[in-house]
Amino acid sequence: MEKMKKMKNKSFKQRTKVIVVSILLLVSSVTLISFDDKEFKIAKNLDIFFTLFRELNLFYVDNTDPKELIEAGIEGMLKSLDPYTTYIPETEIDNFNFITTGQYGGIGALIRKAGDYTIISEPYKEFPAYKAGLIAGDTVITIDGIPTTGKKIRNVSEMLKGIPKTSVKLEIKRYKEEGILEKTLIREKITIKNVPYFGVFENNIGYIKLSNFTKDAGKEVKSALIALKKENVESIILDLRGNPGGLLIESVNVANLFTDKGQEIVSTRGKVKKWDNVYKTLQTAVDTLIPLVILVNRGSASASEIVAGSLQDLDRAVIIGKRTFGKGLVQTSRPLSYNTQLKVTTAKYYIPSGRCIQAVDYTHRNEDGSVGYIPDSLINEYETKNGRKVLDGGGITPDITVETDHPGSITISLFTKNLIFDYATIYVAENKLINYSDEFEFTDNDYQQFLKFLENKDIDYTTQSDENLKELIDVAKKEKYYKDAIEEFEALEKKLAHDKNKDLQTFKDEIIHLLTEEISCRYEYQEGRVKASLKKDVQFDKAIEVLKNKDEYFAILKGITDKTDSANL
């Protein structure tokens, strides 16, 4: 047995030696060919990298893991580029495919950690978790008999995912119910909707929420638009807020619904010229005349910016909200060996006016390696189809900017510590609203019960005023001014010291709004959350206002109204 083991080790070493020699010969032979300076540098540095890697593995004092070393090297190399160029190891291929296709095999539910346990945070309607009766707030005790206690969320997620038509058995603990519930679910192919909700509002205004640009996003928006037109809507709001983008072709498909066939929507230009492309609309539009408002914010990026920017350039839509993220880069996935991939930035994209809206300059880094926004001196002016002035280099600037209030620090604390979520679980269990409707309101009496729930909860937080004052005091101490103004500083500290009970009243409206959203989601899932979010939404309200006043709408598109005017509501 020992002899066989030695023979195997010898065989392994010989194979390794052959591979090493082969690579060295390949790299060495490359350097002998007549290359230009750049190609010589590539060959030279590959040789250096390989020899360094070999020496580390042979002589470093402790044992090294070749996989970890290489992945650390890859990570360091890609870190010097932009954040969108990433290495995707085999273990993350499924997650990458989900991001691009919106599909995976599993039970159809969002999960989150709560201490040592895993909680169902949102089942997707019509999928296995929903069919099995799982609800938000359920604690997952075991999966196929394996306890989930202490496991990382990604490990629990991997246990729940699997090949469609296979079964998975869960033990669940539910608030206010005795004992453990056993649920057997049959996994399915889960496809997350790009359009979680659409509906009709006052003055026959149709609304479509588009959350992502995964496969079939264009088809989903088209179906929603046709359904709304059957309801005789006279105008449309397309909500792209918080939409991070996705597939470039789907942005073209969405824009195609509102523009003539053959219209250029976006073009791409990069180092590999044969990959440069011009994307034009290929289908007959659903409606080229219906008034259209597009809602955007800082979370609207990539494909969202192509849709908003192209329709702004073509004077086909009025853009309302806040300036978008500013991602004007295109990525392509390239297969590598051993089922790994490289997602690499291959081009910049340009919308019809000719502008690229990339906001961050990754090409010219600062001395410390940091990156900055493209300076004003390098931002150029372009024109829309009607001659309106638009800018490149910083996202899409709305035609009407509507600022929203920043949430209070206490509101953020309640949300991030899952106290909003936890109370919604209690509220739904104790109230069981059989006749729930869109008119649901979280009353003042309900809010008093919520305050009682918070009495023994940790909701400590720091306000921006706290942080700024602390920074000012530190500076004053360094510059020797603090002692002379100590009384004033102490008075200011008392004046600005946050009071939890006072803040719970000051920010009552926005806290109630979040509670309403979470409770509505328990009854109507994603659709309920979206509808509840629109109840006190100043950007949505502004869109309604503009579409009700057709003179204002067309004046904006013709450039009669000053594009920089803003509505601070």
How would you summarize this macromolecular structure in one to three sentences?
With 569 residues, the chain is an alpha+beta fold. 41% of the residues lie in helices and 20% in strands.
Topology:
Elements: H1 2-32, H2 37-59, H3 66-79, E1 86-88, H4 93-101, E2 103-106, E3 109-114, E4 117-123, H5 128-131, E5 139-143, E6 146-147, H6 153-160, E7 167-173, E8 181-186, E9 188-191, E10 197-201, E11 205-209, H7 217-230, E12 235-239, H8 248-256, E13 264-270, E14 277-280, E15 292-296, H9 303-313, E16 318-321, E17 329-335, E18 341-350, E19 360-361, E20 372-373, E21 381-383, E22 389-391, E23 400-403, H10 409-416, H11 419-431, H12 444-454, H13 464-478, H14 486-496, H15 500-506, H16 508-533, H17 538-548, H18 550-557, E24 566-568
Parallel strand pairs: 11-12, 12-15, 15-16, 16-23, 23-24
Antiparallel strand pairs: 1-18, 2-9, 3-4, 4-5, 5-6, 5-7, 7-8, 10-11, 13-14, 13-18, 17-18, 19-20, 21-22
Helix pairs in contact: 1-2, 7-8, 8-9, 11-16, 13-14
Adjacency order of strands in the biggest sheet: 10-11-12-15-16-23-24
Q: Report on the biggest sheet.
A: 7 strands, mixed
CATH superfamily of the largest domain: 2-enoyl-CoA Hydratase, Chain A, domain 1
Q: Mind telling me the C-alpha Rg? A: 28 Å
Q: For the terminal residues, how far apart are their CA atoms?
A: 80 Å
Beta-strand portion reads 15-25%
CATH class of the largest domain: Alpha Beta
In the residues, how many domains can be counted?
5
Low-confidence stretches: 1-34, 563-569
In CATH, the topology of the largest domain is named: 2-enoyl-CoA Hydratase, Chain A, domain 1
Overall pLDDT metric: 88
Structural class call reads alpha+beta
Any idea what the shape is?
globular
DSSP summary, beta strand count: 24
Number of helices: 18
* Share of helix, binned: 40-55%
CATH architecture of the largest domain: Alpha-Beta Complex
